[in-house]
Amino acid sequence: MIIVEEVQNETQKKEFLEFPATLYQHDKNYIRPLNKDIEEVFNPQKNKFFRNGECVRFLFKNKQNQLVGKVAVFVNETYQQNQPTGGIGFFDCINDQSTANFIFDHCKIWLQQRGMDAMDGPINFGERDKFWGLLIDGFIEPLYGMNYNFPYYKELFENYGFKIYFEQLCFSRSIFADVSRVFTVMHAKHKRNPEISAIPMTKDKLEKFAKDFTEVYNKAWASHGEGKQMEEAKTLKMFKKMKPIINEHISWFVYENEKPIAMWMNIPDTNQWFKYLNGKFDWFEKLKFLLVKRFKKNEKMIGLVFGVVPEWQRKGIDGFMIWEGTQHLRKHTDFRTTELQWIGDFNPKMIKIAENLDTNVTRKLATYRYLFDRNKEFERHPML
Question: Are residues 130 and 220 in the same domain?
């Protein structure tokens, strides 16, 4: 017998947060997410997706009142798919198929009652940049905001009937690995052009870089598949929020005279610091974070976004930017590896860019889909 509890009070919220820490207590690669990051997902005042959706959390306990699983289940009107599709996320479960099946069945019924014909998971009740996908290969320390799970989760999902809707590929390379000769040749070519310059992003000019980032991003990605227009005000807000962790040596912009034509955005992997905080971020942990940040070397950075305006694409300006930035950060930082946030297997253009950077696939996640009509033909995510 399994007892189901909807998370409603503070005790249940704590149980929801603490269960993974207990489950993964002997896994050396597990890094506990910050409690505040998870709680913000379920706070209607913090998460705009509540304006057009509904989300609840559930705990699952055995007859001894021991937690054996948890999940969040949600509907989001802005999540447009071929059929009405809900989502499940923040799934954790003991290694028992019958328990997992009970959890999935519970989510299925909840979603069917709200008119859904399918469910995707594990995904986030929010943007794709956090808590999205099931780790299926590369069981190493997760990046900040990235899901981590035991290898047996793949069997739990697939044995129930979930199929991979798309794979999420993460690419990595050593900062000190050889750079493609094409990049060095293009760097030498553009370096001779007095109209071309590359400068690192600095904290004292966030308004300027927010404006330049928005311009390059919208020109480079707005018409590309699922690309969305960015607003300068939103970019600036994001930059200000990131300010405490911005490293002034690792994000670069390229200009033709004063016009921005390319950008390469990176941040430190804050999980390399957060892993010492055990999920908490109160005043004591904030002080501890500052001390760890100052005295503990962080050797891993994350590639957030890379873009070149259309008129400068295929002209080697990316090689100029990457080699200019790489030479600089090798001298001025402790970073030894960089990892690109996941790229969907439906996005061959971005995968090609990653491969051209001489990267290797270091981990894979998967977004799964389960169709409630088991006779309906399953289709993977369309290619861009």
Answer: no
% of the chain at pLDDT higher than 90? 86
Residue 355 in domain: no
Angle separating helix axes 152-160 and 97-112, nearest 10 degrees: 50
pLDDT at position 225: 45
Q: Strand 134-137 and strand 118-121: pairing?
A: unpaired
- Tell me what percent of the chain is helix, strand and coil, each rounded to the nearest 5: 35, 25, 35
Cα 251 off chain centre by: 18
Q: Number of folded domains in the chain?
A: 2
- Predicted local distance difference test score (pLDDT) of residue 228: 66
- Let me know whether 100 and 188 are in one domain: no
How many CB atoms neighbour CB 45 within 10 A? 7
For residues 340 and 318, what is the distance between their CA atoms, to the nearest angstrom? 15
pLDDT in tens, 211-224: 999 999 999 876 55
The per-residue pLDDT for range 261-295, each reduced to its tens digit, is: 999 999 999 999 999 999 999 999 999 999 999 99
Strand partners, 53: 76
